[in-house]
Amino acid sequence: MSKGIKEIPKLTVDALLTENRVFKPSAEFTKQANVKNDSLHKKAAKDRLAFWAECAEKLDWFKPWDKVLEWKVPFSKWFVGGKLNASFNCLDRHIKAGLGNKTAIFWEGEPAGEQKIISYDEAYKQVNKLANVFKSLGIKKGDRVAIYMPMIPEAAYAMLACSRIGAIHTVVFGGFSADALRERMNDAQAKLLITADGGYRRGKVLPLKDIADEAVAGAPTIKHVLVVKRAKNNITMHEKRDLWYHELMGKAKDFCEPEHMDAEDVLFILYTSGTTGKPKGIIHTTGGYLTGVTNTMQWVFDLKSKDVFWCTADVGWVTGHSYFVYGPMANAATQVMYEGTPDFPERNRFWKIIEKYKVTIFYTAPTAIRAFMKWGTKWVEDCKLTSLRLLGSVGEPINPEAWIWYHLNIGKQKCPIVDTWWQTETGCILIAPLPGITATKPGSATKPLPGIETVVLDDDGKEIKEGGGILAIKSPWPSMLRGIWRDPERYKKTYWSRWPNTYFPGDGAKKDEDGYLWLLGRVDDIMLVAGHNISTMEVESALVDNPIVAESAVVGITDELKGQAIAAFVILKEGNNPSEESQNILKAHVVKKIGAIARPEKIIFTPELPKTRSGKIMRRLLRDIAEGRALGDVTTLADASVVESLKSKYEDKEG
Ligand code: WT7
Questions:
Q1: Which atom of ligand 1 is least distant from the CA of 532?
Q2: How far is the CA of 491 from the centre of ligand 1 (A)?
Q3: What is the position in ligand 1's atom list of the atom closest to the CA of 398?
Q4: Paired strand residues for 284
Q5: In Å, how far are 231, 289, 431 from 57, measured between CA atoms?
Q6: Residue 325 has what pLDDT?
Q7: Cβ(572)–Cβ(557) under 8 Å?
Q8: What is the pLDDT of residue 144?
Q9: Which of 44, 320, 403, 440 could disulfide-link 313, Cβ–Cβ 3.0 to 4.6 Å?
Q10: Is it true that the peptide bond before 345 is cis, omega within 30 degrees of 0?
Q11: Using CA atoms, how far apart are residues 511 and 294, in angstroms rounded to an integer?
């Protein structure tokens, strides 16, 4: 391929490019759909800014905006001068509309029999109290609050309570390590951390507070740690610094005036992996972000007031922000929130939950679908899934076999599937079918949503009308990231330097003869492991941080379940043994530095790394070795002389 671009992950492409099945929406679905025809597309094509203004009017504004867009490439401002509050839009206005009794959350704990049914009234009360607690701890508009929580309702309350008083939340996924949490709190200069004693995962208690203690010890900006009692595991409370959530909530007042926020005030920062070892704090603001998530909820998920929506993502990822907290709640949706894993106590837990709460819309990730496929249909067969009417997929390309399995076994051939392409950076879904009008092709996210202008480009920025290239976005959209926290230069360089005035998402894409887009995986050094972004550099840095490692190179390899798994080539320092024990030490070290999601599947010791004449690591050769193509099954040690002789074969291609 052309300069600077890695080849596109091979297996996905092979499967996708031979796929030619088409599934048309049923007349029955179309009849009831929120989007029945192409009028939105027409409006957006005629006047994009007027179209987005109409979308923003679905929110409640304290003061209308003066100007829809101010675009000083690559910095955008949307709904300039407008004032609103996110928690007001997710709660107060529904209560004013008489929906206080409506169920907001069916919460299901992982241990058998634990559940809570939370109405909008109840959520409103909790969020108001918590907002007052934050104020009593000295949190003010613009301050950063870190959230490190299990999947319990308090996680959503914490996010909404921040938005109520104008504090900026930064949620850190509960599976991240102390090091990862510390790094994020320090970058954000967070004043307060909210966590829980522990959370349940696959029958065990994850000791979140212990991990948080380790992190906070190196995070000098944190003044207080607010602790929710969830798992009742033993923890240490540090005097003055640590406070029990229930104690302060017990004393807090029921109402807190929502802050009138500027449309462009920061709503949250969410860290995502970049191509360097340092995560990027993606900034989202209030008006544009809420406009994006509120509208896509109606268009893509076809949400109606009677629906029971279940997005299985953790609040620690952008999917949990946009399609568990803000998108659904801004639409007064009834949702399921589940604390644990899909295989606890048995592999039918998700299907049992769908049956129990009569879920109508189910949104999950291809990696989960592939696990369900592997476990077999017997887990699905004795559960009643007749309530389902729409299915969604997100996080990575969905392979057609998984799509068809989902369609047959979960959707029973009657539910449209929306394969939704987006990113932490895009804030909301940008490419997806509109289920009432778009014919779907398994493996294709189909076409951009109204108001979104995507193109497929070659490396020089020339448009590819049909064929493979790189995805690009030509014009700004309301829920786009506004920058990288404390690093505007990196923002420009990462997203806006490849082509002039055009956003570079980092994904390979193919456009077919019908104009459908097939997203083909990352073209940069980011791996998609079980749908989560992990940069090769981040794992390499974690490895060389261990005293036995001299150098390392990390590649993503094809994995049947996770999409990609991590293979690490490691040069040990003199005097250390390339043993199984060393492999285990290094795997554990990466888990400690980043979290279990980054655990390398394979560690391959090598006396040297194959490099091009210009000194670049030959990652393709490494991938071929790790996947067993180049050297047969290498488990521990790559032979230097063989690797050296293979090099010449690759050198010509790699350039
Ligand atoms: C990257 C963004 C979007 C929320 C979860 C991930 C990949 C995401 C799809 C899809 C093909 C997809 C892309 C993207 N991706 N959805 N439907 N088809 N690829 O958010 O962690 O910011 O990751 O996930 O490579 O760039 P994220």
A1: 21
A2: 18
A3: 18
A4: 268
A5: 42, 13, 22
A6: 98
A7: no
A8: 98
A9: 320
A10: yes
A11: 28
Q: What is the 3-class SS of 54-121, one letter each residue?
A: HHHCCCCCCECCCEEEEEECCEEEEEECCEECHHHHHHHHHHHCCCCCCEEEEEECCCCCCEEEEEHH
Contacts of 437 (CB under 8 A, 6+ apart): 25, 30, 33, 35, 36, 37, 38
Q: Determine the pLDDT at residue 17.
A: 62
CA distance 309 to 337: 9
Establish if 91 belongs to a structural domain.
yes
pLDDT at 629: 82
Q: 171 with 293, same domain?
A: yes
Q: What is the pLDDT of residues 428-442, one digit of tens each?
A: 999 999 999 999 999
The dihedral through the CA atoms of 148, 153, 156, 160 has a sign that is negative
Q: Which helix (H) or strand (E) holds 336?
A: strand 334-338
Q: Do 313 and 461 belong to one domain?
A: yes
Locate 227 and state its tokens: 């602790």
**Which positions ≥6 away from 434 have C-beta within 8 Å?**
33, 35, 299, 300, 449
Q: Does some domain include residue 505? A: no
Report the separation in Å between the CA atom of 423 and the middle of ligand 1, taken as the mean of its atom positions.
5
State phi, psi for 183 to the nearest 5 degrees. Answer: -60, -40
Residue 10 lies in a domain: no
Handedness of CA 311, 314, 319, 324 (dihedral sign): positive
Beta strands 526-529 and 532-535, pairing class? antiparallel
Residues touching ligand 1 (Cβ under 6 Å) are 272, 317-319, 394-397, 419-424, 445, 505-507, 519, 522, 528, 533
Rounded CA gap, 125 and 515, in Å? 48
Q: What is the pTM of this model?
A: 0.91
* Separation between Cα atoms, residue 82 and residue 459, nearest integer Å: 39
Note whether 26 and 169 are same-domain residues.
Answer: yes
Q: Which atom of ligand 1 is nearest to the CA of 422?
A: 3
Q: What is the CATH number of the domain that holds 597?
A: 3.30.300.30
pLDDT of residue 1: 34
Q: Which amino acid is at 477?
A: W
Q: Is residue 378 domain-shared with residue 247, that is, in the same domain? A: yes
Cα angle vertex 161, ends 160, 165, to 5°?
Answer: 115
Closest-CA residue, ligand 1 atom 17, reads 421
71 with 133, same domain: the answer is yes
Which residues of the chain carry a pLDDT beneath 50? 1-11, 654-655
Task: Give the structural domain span for 542.
Answer: 528-654
Token pair in block for residue 536: 């090769």
Number of domains in the chain: 2
Residue closest via CA to ligand 1's atom 11 equals 397
Tell me: do 335 and 377 sit in the same domain: yes
What's the CATH code of the domain at 119?
A: 3.40.50.12780
Q: Which atom of ligand 1 is nearest to the CA of 520?
A: 11
According to the model, what pLDDT value does residue 19 have? Answer: 74
Q: Is residue 509 part of a domain?
A: no
Task: Say whether both 421 and 549 belong to one domain.
Answer: no
C-alpha span between 323 and 12 (Å, rounded): 26
Place of tokens 């005629």: 46
Residue 522 CA to ligand 1 center (angstroms) comes to: 9
Q: Specify the pLDDT at position 459.
A: 83
| Amino acid at site 515 | G
458 and 568, same structural domain? no
Q: Which residues contact 411 (CB under 8 A, 6 or more apart)?
A: 388, 391, 417
